[in-house]
Amino acid sequence: MTNAEIAALTDEYVMKTYGRLPLAFVRGEGCRLWDADGKAYLDILAGISVVGTGHCHPRVVEAICRQAGSLMHTSNLFQIEPQARLAELLCQNSCAEKVFFANSGAEANEAAIKLARKWAGQHKPEQARGIVTALHSFHGRTLATVTATGQEKYNKPFAPLPPGFGYVPYNDLDALSAAVDDRVCAVMLEPIIAEGGILVPDEAYLAGVRELCDQRHVLLILDEVQTGLGRTGKLFGYQHWGIEPDVFTLAKALGGGFPIGACLARGDAATALEPGNHASTFGGNHLACAAAEAALRVILEDDLAGNAAIMGQRLRDGLLAMRAEAPLVSGVRGRGLLLGLELSAPKATEVEAGCRERGLIVNKLADDLLRLAPPLVLTADEADEGLGILRETLLAV
Ligand SMILES: Cc1ncc(COP(=O)(O)O)c(C=O)c1O
């Protein structure tokens, strides 16, 4: 089928919950994608920060094929070796002591919210069940996580929303201090706000949040769904700020392209959920965990976090150097390979489309902001190729 034929079929039969482009990719390898009409692209989006190990990494493909040929799913009524091994690997490489496996970022956050309320039942007075999140945050699309999301455009149409969520401006410790009263049991934040505009907090913010949570005896939940697993130049976003959350969540890059999410916890938060409290039929099944173990080993063994730091700096330097000749470039924000290219005019749609015509996939996050989030296996040559196409496009728009 051609791009147009696939788009027409989708249009007829798939619910219109997405504003899709009439473009269907049919093959991927590393940072390259090919569409149904045979055109090749350099991918600077990675399926929205998902394929950190690149498209179809041979070790991930091999693990999926091997596991699919022996056993895919038996349910959590039984022991699952790949799940136990993945949990061990995650805990050995993070501050976590225990893991719950889900199938997506929203589900991982849903688990974190339930965990916090359950923990509060064991450690806090009855009125303390509230969760404070940030304005401009994004935590998912289930009813609880879309309510945790501090953006009315996502949750207002679905009122009545679950109670017990409050919002504060991000990067404002005084506002957080005022909000964390005796009705609150947890603070939930992204270490870098991703979907909401690639917003990096001030150096002291997250250490201040940690201190406040300790003083008020509330849990600090970090949503690392987008920042985790090397994307920001460290394995986990929290490592930039020298703090440890009580609970953090992962998804996106965890399965190397295969759906899997995780809620990880330490201390008394790690044992708050008890048998019967939470579950998922598919969560942590053999196939998803085999894919994730392979992806995580690639991320660790090939130091993809280190590569993200180096390539992120290369992209940042290259973009900032364009400012002299391309006044549309006004700045760059983000960390590692989670970058926001700030434009001086609301032309992100035109730049995104111009790049696509030239064979480069980037993503408009706002009218004046583009997201650059390539696979973490990006090479220097690929970074320079992407910069070249961006430069040509920025000069043409
Ligand atoms: C920080 C963050 N949390 C949660 C989610 C939701 O993840 P999912 O779409 O896998 O449910 C996203 C998705 O973009 C995200 O960026």
The level of helicity is 25-40%
Shape category: globular
Structural class: alpha/beta
Query: Per DSSP, what share of the residues sits in E-state strands of 2 or more residues?
Result: 15-25%
Condensed summary:
The chain has 397 residues and is an alpha/beta fold.
List the helices and strands and how they pair.
Elements: H1 3-13, E1 25-29, E2 32-35, E3 40-43, H2 46-49, H3 58-70, H4 81-92, E4 98-102, H5 105-123, E5 130-134, H6 143-148, H7 152-155, E6 165-168, H8 173-179, E7 184-189, H9 205-216, E8 219-223, E9 247-250, E10 261-265, H10 286-301, H11 304-321, E11 329-335, E12 338-343, H12 348-357, E13 360-361, E14 363-366, E15 369-372, H13 380-396
Parallel strand pairs: 3-13, 5-6, 5-7, 7-8, 8-9
Antiparallel strand pairs: 1-2, 2-3, 4-10, 9-10, 11-12, 12-15, 14-15
Helix pairs in contact: 3-10, 4-10, 11-13
Bound molecules: pyridoxal-5'-phosphate.
